[in-house]
Amino acid sequence: MRFLQSVQHLPYSLHSPVLQYEENFLHAVKEKQLSFAACEFFNETAPRVWACSDYAATTCIRYPELLLDLLDAGSLEKTFRDGDFQESFERLVSHPISDSFSGEDEAIFAKQLRLFRHQQMIRIAWRDISQLASFSETSQDLTYLADFCLTRGLAQLSQGMYQTFGYPLDEQGQVQQLLIVALGKLGGEDLNFSSDIDLLFIYPAQGETQNGARAISHQVFFTRLAQRLIKLLNDTTSDGFVFRVDMRLRPFGEMGSLVHSYAAIENYYQEQGRDWERYALLKARCISQDMMFKEKVTTLLNRFVYRRYLDYGIIDALRDLKKMMENERRRKRLKHNIKRGAGGIREMEFIIQSLQLVRGGKETRLQTSSFFCAIERLKKKNYLSWDVAKNIRNHYAYLRVLENRLQMLDDRQTQELPKDEEMQIKLGFSMGELNWDAVQNAVWDSMKYVEDYLAHLSQVPTHATQVIESSEDKDNMTSYQNIWFKKIDDAVAERFLTRQGLSNGTDFMACLTQFSERYILTKMSSRARKRLDDLMPMLIGRLAKEPQGSVYLHRVIPILEAISRRSAYLALLLENPNVIDYLIVLCSKSSWLAKEISRYPILLDELLDRRVQGPTTIAALEQELRQLLLLVPEDDLEHQMETLRQFKHSLQLRIANASLVLPQEEQAVSYQLTQVAEVIVAEVMKLAWKSMVASHGYPVSEQNPSGNMQFAVIAYGSFGAYDLSYLSDLDLVFIHNGQMDAMTQGNSAISHQQFYLKIAQKILHLLSTRTLSGTLYELDIRLRPSGSAGLLVSSFSAFAEYQKERAWIWEHQALSKGRFVGGCLEIKTQFSQLREQVLCCQRDKNNLINQIVDMRSKMSQNASPVPSGEFDIKSSPGGLTDLEFMVQYWALLWAEEYPELIANYEVGKIFPLLGRLGIISEKEALDLLGAYKAYKDGIHLAALQEQSTLVEADRFALHCRAVVEMWNSVQEQSYDR
């Protein structure tokens, strides 16, 4: 009766579901023949808990014994202290686990952990929803639960490993322990109700296990231990999972080792650690029984995260990270996401953690993984005003409580406010509100405060702070509006536009009329149409001042059509007039860029970025891509593929923009485009490797006991020579060092040969599959041994034998551009040695020149005829191909004596070297280098304007003459060795 009375205090629409839950629970108790007498505490609290958490209700019904145990022990009414989790787990466990820890024992233990997790999540949700626990206590309970499961699981699994492999002892004979570094919310001791846990594994030192049936290296021992721990926690069984584990923040990400020795970690963070990793490790917290090693690792990580000075240098990196968060939010429309939306939880953390990174090196008190501790300490040091600190703390606490209650509904990792009315009622009631609007208003108030505060900090000018237009511009704006709304005659409009500076008003008006009458515009929403109507007069006004404004309008219109139903992009242009100016500049200088933006409107986001140039180093590119992919769910391959394509488009736009705004040689553009391709290929390799390992296990062998990747990608052609253009394909060759007769270690074991073949096929699929954002690259794999008839993946020994014994001269020409771009470093060394050995061998001069001239003649015969009076920059006599053939000839002829000739992959760097070595005169070297640069620049500009490489013969006449004369001299063999 008391239960029913408590139900009456719930919103009416929740009465029936909660009463049904009670009926089902009592039935489950009866079915399992359990003893239950409802106490006053149960009757008062259960209706509210079950109304606000379907997960708690259904779990109690499925496992009624878990709730009865909590009630009997009084666990729902008390705060857990040290030892309470252990005591509760021991009380729940009914099956003792043997020291041998067999497969059956492991399955039993996994079930025990899952049931224990369910029981504790019921307890935590019960106390939180019943307001018996504060937010701080709830977060700590969730954190300590995860800590217990990690440490108990690690201890149990370690015992089983000792039985088989012995002990990983240090120099003093002490057993080394695997140290777990908790990151993110777990590291900050404020875990969400349904959080992932981000981990990093470290062990003290290298060595081999002792006193076991079979000795293995410490690296292998701890790798297997970590793999089993992740499987124990992460795998979903009929009883659910314990915690989802995310390992992507470890050094080198998914391609990196699962565990690292202390020495390896120290070296990585000293030599290769990135700024974003400092941000990620700010909440690092070590979990270990070995207190000395724990303190040692904590000191190392703090030394990496914090600098000894006021670190204003981190601000740019943090600004970029913030911009990435804004772009992600804009692309995914995260308005209702309380974590990633504007002013949400992530941005509140960003404010506090940015201040920690800037000042934490000098103010060691700021070196804390706790958000709330950091706020208090920043406030006391006056780095945050008291009002700001108080408001951020309160808004953060409210959103975090809401986040927990949202996740308690169904034990689901979400931060999206519900759209379903019943869920809104449940969530609102759990927050103490009977009106959902009150919850929403509180959320918007919190997020708006943070958003406004960030805008104030960043001081980014918006459309409201743009330079005020002149009075003449304001007067003309009325005319531009009349033109768009057809309020004046076309002839009058044309005369007006001509006075503004436009050279072809008739064509301009015809294009504008066609666009305004386009069927697609009639399907726009009223909001989008309003924005377009506001935008078009501004656009007309800017184009009217350009003599070629009509041409540029033709290029801009496809972009407007592409975004006509995407109101957010129209708003982006409308609210950022500088972006409209920028867009017109790009469209005026490159029809190709205009088409790229129309195909992929998401690139408009890039125009908000005032950086002229993209990242200029491989490390910077890797960092940018890594940050993007960390925003993508680890198991969402389709999303990862889209992100890679958007990354490529974005970088191409920035590189093209840099070449147009800050004119630079084409070689610099090609080099940057090649770097982008390298980073993408490396990431694709990681995805392919992860996929194959998940399906077939690791390729373990006697020579490779850890199952590390024994696979490499070799770039040929323009990719190998750092010579990519915007539309280049990738010439790839795949090599492996797998043991031919060995099998992978997995449920679906296959041979190493098959394993690496599947990796290559997966790489090709990921690179060339067309998605909404197009393909990454067109691929050419015909340069592998034996061409199209050869194996897709060659063992290194077979590849070496082919190059030494059976390859043609033209294949050695191709090998001169061959370059390792990713994979196994051992193969990199082997390939470099083989390449030098093959290219530096002694050659017969006559045979060499004859074969090269013959190959060039065949290419000329197959090339399309060039009209009289025109010149093809690439294929005409005296063009780029002749230059490259000459360079390859000299390299193959002289490499035995001058191996530095084949150490250079970039053709443009070889000409000066040829002059210095005396192979050709320095004047000839300068002439050829000048021709090469001019040709590459011409090809680059042709690509941006979508023009062919056919030009008037006079344009490159001097360069052509110099190349033809040199090519003729080469054919006549006028240079004697």
Tally the helices: what do you get?
A: 42
From the alpha carbons, calculate the radius of gyration and give it in angstroms: 33 Å
Largest sheet: 5 strands, mixed
Mean pLDDT: 86
Helix content: 55-70%
* Unreliable residue stretches: 459-472
Overall 3D geometry?
A: globular
Total strands: the figure is 12
Gap between N and C termini: 107 Å
Amount of beta strand = 5-15%
What is the SS-derived class?
mainly alpha
3D architecture notes:
With 977 residues, this protein is mainly alpha-helical. Strands 1, 2, 3, 4 and 5 form a five-stranded mixed β-sheet that branches. Strands 6, 7, 8, 9 and 10 form a five-stranded mixed β-sheet that branches. A two-stranded antiparallel ribbon has the order 11-12. It starts with a helix and ends in a 6-residue tail after the last helix.
Topology:
Layout: H1 2-7, H2 15-31, H3 40-52, H4 54-62, H5 64-73, H6 84-92, H7 103-129, H8 135-165, E1 179-183, H9 184-187, E2 197-203, H10 218-234, E3 245-246, E4 259-261, H11 262-271, H12 275-280, E5 285-287, H13 291-305, H14 314-332, H15 345-359, H16 371-380, H17 386-408, H18 421-430, H19 436-458, H20 471-484, H21 490-500, H22 505-516, H23 519-522, H24 526-543, H25 549-563, H26 567-575, H27 577-589, H28 591-599, H29 618-629, H30 637-661, H31 666-696, E6 711-716, H32 717-720, E7 730-736, H33 752-768, E8 779-780, E9 793-795, H34 796-805, H35 809-815, E10 819-823, H36 825-839, H37 845-862, E11 870-872, H38 880-894, H39 900-903, H40 907-917, H41 922-944, E12 950-952, H42 957-971
Parallel strand pairs: 2-3, 2-4, 7-8, 7-9
Antiparallel strand pairs: 1-2, 1-5, 6-7, 6-10, 11-12
Helix pairs in contact: 2-4, 3-4, 3-18, 4-5, 4-7, 7-8, 8-10, 11-13, 14-15, 15-16, 15-19, 17-19, 20-24, 21-22, 22-25, 24-26, 24-27, 25-27, 25-28, 26-27, 27-28, 29-31, 30-31, 31-33, 34-36, 37-38, 40-41, 41-42
